[in-house]
Amino acid sequence: RNGLLSIVLTEYQYAGGAHGSTVRTACTFDLKTGARLKLSDLMKPGSGYQKDFDSRIRKEIDRRVSAGLLTELSGSAFRTLGDNPEFYLSNGGLVFYFQQYAHFPYAAGIQEFRLPYGGIAALKPSYAFPAT
Q1: What does DSSP assign to residue 123?
Q2: Are 9 and 25 in contact (CB under 8 A)?
Q3: Does 116 have pLDDT greater than 70?
């Protein structure tokens, strides 16, 4: 869509012990240039998107914790996506995800947080998606 392609791979390995381990890898490409894109490539410079996304994800984590759907690890609570977050583009929005144990216990699995395109004003016009 809009000249972009996201590929999401999920790998599972069991090397003994109580349980195996799952790792997710996502890559987003500009189909016109073939370039692999970082989140910053999709966003308007100076738009403040990182603080906005951090705040929205923090609110959703708090909602899930309050509802009893999620437990956050005390030593590694989510604060920021950082400069190079793990993400992919879905039909419905920009999806950020966290590997097992990054912020949540193993039982939580890989947690995903979808931000609908219609609510992302920081997207560069050439990458803007219709609201869904």
Answers
A1: B
A2: yes
A3: yes
